């Protein structure tokens, strides 16, 4: 589905593509709004996100999937599987926001929110925000609630890449992760640069960047303020 942004917004996305180095390779531009997302920070935009991801991942040409600026898209737990046909750029200029309540994970894997498996040649950039909305998760931990056992149960890794190659996450803000903010497991050729990773001082185990069995990693010029 072709992008149908208002002219001013289309110009802004084009400018962001130039800044993020995506214009030369992109052949297809898709936005969450093209697939019916509301972007008001309240509505559940998960299906629109999944439909947009599928279209970008199966595109016969390199694709850019844009999260438009000025909007917040509430996304329930998702699992995004590869391989994708061509290179894919996720351009986050707005905000991706988790559900506030842990109840949204009922019947789902409590360890995952934005989970990406087996996707190669993926870049994430755009200057926007990924907000894990971890406050209710933190409230149930022994660090916040002294009467609570410290093994109260699992919490999601906010953004988790597994079995991915040539992955770049650059120039976005990750905040208020339910647990770890950014995790790479059995990945290779990874870049995590120019990130802002922030959570309150009393947020429990909200590690900034977590690596498991991952090789050829570049991590530099990040601001990480978590516990």
Automatic annotation (TrEMBL):
Residues 1-26 form the signal peptide. Pfam families: Glyco_hydro_28. The keyword Signal applies. InterPro entries: Glyco_hydro_28 (IPR000743), Pectin_lyas_fold (IPR012334), Pectin_lyase_fold/virulence (IPR011050). Keywords: Cell wall, Cell wall biogenesis/degradation, Glycosidase, Hydrolase, Secreted, Signal. Its main location: secreted. It comes from the Eukaryota. It is found in: Secreted, Cell wall. GO terms for molecular function: polygalacturonase activity. Transmembrane segments: none annotated. The keyword Secreted applies. GO terms for biological process: carbohydrate metabolic process; cell wall organization. Belongs to the glycosyl hydrolase 28 family. This is Polygalacturonase. It comes from Arundo donax. The lineage of its organism: Eukaryota, Viridiplantae, Streptophyta, Embryophyta, Tracheophyta.
């Amino acid at each position: 589905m072709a992008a149908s942004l208002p002219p001013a917004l289309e110009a802004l996305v084009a400018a962001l593509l130039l800044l993020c180095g995506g214009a030369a390779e992109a052949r297809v531009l898709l936005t969450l709004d093209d697939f019916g997302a509301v972007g008001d920070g309240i509505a559940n935009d998960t299906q629109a996100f999944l439909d947009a991801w599928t279209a970008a991942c199966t595109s016969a040409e390199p694709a850019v999937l844009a999260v438009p600026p000025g909007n917040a898209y509430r996304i329930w737990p998702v699992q995004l599987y590869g391989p994708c046909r061509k290179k894919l750029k996720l351009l986050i200029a707005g905000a991706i926001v988790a559900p506030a309540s842990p109840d949204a994970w009922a019947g789902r894997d409590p360890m995952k929110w934005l989970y990406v498996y087996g996707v190669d040649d993926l870049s994430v950039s755009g200057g926007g925000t990924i907000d894990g909305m971890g406050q209710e998760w933190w409230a149930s931990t022994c660090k916040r609630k002294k009467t609570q056992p410290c093994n109260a149960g699992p919490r999601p890794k906010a953004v988790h890449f597994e079995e991915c190659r040539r992955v770049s996450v650059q120039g976005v803000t990750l905040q208020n992760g339910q647990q770890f903010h950014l995790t790479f497991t059995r990945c290779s050729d990874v870049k995590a640069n120019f990130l802002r990773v922030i959570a309150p001082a009393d947020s429990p185990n909200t590690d900034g960047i977590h690596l498991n069995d991952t090789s050829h990693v570049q991590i530099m010029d990040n601001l990480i303020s978590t516990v």
